Fold Glutamine ABC transporter ATP-binding protein.
Amino acid sequence: MNAIDPIIRIENVYKFFGTLKALDNVSLSVNPGEKVVIIGPSGSGKSTLLRSINRLESIDRGRIIVDGKDVNARENDINAIRQELGMVFQSFNLFPHKTVLQNLTMAPIRLKKIPQAQAEKTAMTLLDKVGIPDKANVYPAMLSGGQQQRVAIARALAMNPKIMLFDEPTSALDPEMIGEVLDVMVKLAREGMTMVVVTHEMGFAKEVADRVIFMDGGVIVEQGTPEHFFENPEHPRTKKFLSQIL
Ligand code: ADP
Ligand code: MG
């Protein structure tokens, strides 16, 4: 028997928007420490899948279990489950009227009752980790997109999550800033974080992904190692998609 229990279990999930089937019998398990990259054309259900993991979307059928807890079960506290899940979006979503440091300390102080001095100490360590310790006291508008996204990553990490979900974290960035954000994500991956990353940065996938998932039309069409996708993708839809992005 395998001793490892998946930390995320997505079982036969369906999601409809009206008559549109955004997720069509999706099943996916992620082991602790595993890095999964999800690729696929626009509208294929990648964001819906990611968002349903922390119940930003409800699902119509199936089950999603995070760290042993069914995220859609009424008896489970979704806020407690969400504390285990850090999420980083394409748009950085920082609080504009808070400094960088306040962005990082707000949730730990309010939701985890961490003393302010301790929250600030952790925040400074995280800003150091993402390479911008000198930006603690500025407002987000003073930062470049790449810096804002690194703050967003640090803010998610400040809650000490077990899993990090990234939804196209570099898609809104100017090309010269993509590398600095991916570098932080690679570092996080090396430290053993469990990561589910929607991205078309195949260089990143090649460097860190244990598994790549290709979605199309709400379905997981194909999955395998990054090498599999580079060397011999099987499904015609996968080949077509890869020929467009590589
Ligand atoms: P992706 O992230 O792969 O681009 P999405 O998960 O955002 O795809 O969307 C999957 C499908 O669901 C698309 O057809 C999209 O238009 C539709 N969709 C997503 N969110 C909503 C919503 N809130 N209301 C209606 N349709 C939606
Ligand atoms: Mg999306």
